[in-house]
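To illustrate the input format used throughout this study, we show a single complete record. The first block contains the structure-token representation of the backbone; no residue identities are included at this stage. The design step must infer an amino acid for every position from geometry alone.
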């Protein structure tokens, strides 16, 4: 029995000395854990960077759209003011023309009336 135990113990000793030690396994496991954490941090940083770039792009686009809309509103206001000014000018010109026509009409009527008519000299 001693003879069979000795080779088994020798084989176990050889197997134990050939494989990695617990310290080596723990060190490798820690390195793997650190590597995974580092990769996760890099991925997170890249995603954060891309999200910030997208957000900045959207913000800039919205800002540009708002500026364009404000410019359009300002143009419409300017056009309305110009049309209003033109309408006022047209109204003033029309009023002057009407006043002129009224004066001419009054002159014509006054010209038709006899100047030296006394009461009782009329046709009535």
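Output of the design step:
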């Amino acid at each position: 029995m001693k003879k069979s135990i000795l080779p088994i113990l020798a084989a176990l000793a050889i197997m134990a000395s050939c494989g990695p030690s617990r310290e080596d396994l723990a060190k490798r496991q820690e390195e793997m854990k650190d590597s995974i954490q580092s990769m996760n941090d890099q991925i997170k940083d890249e995603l954060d960077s891309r999200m910030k770039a997208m957000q900045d792009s959207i913000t800039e686009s919205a800002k540009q759209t708002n500026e364009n809309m404000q410019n359009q509103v300002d143009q419409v206001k300017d056009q309305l003011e110009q049309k209003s000014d033109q309408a006022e000018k047209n109204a003033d010109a029309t009023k002057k023309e009407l006043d002129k026509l009224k004066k001419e009409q009054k002159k014509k009527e006054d010209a038709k009336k006899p100047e030296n008519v006394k009461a009782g000299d009329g046709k009535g």
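Structural context for interpreting the output: The radius of gyration is 53 Å. Helices lie at 2-18, 22-112.
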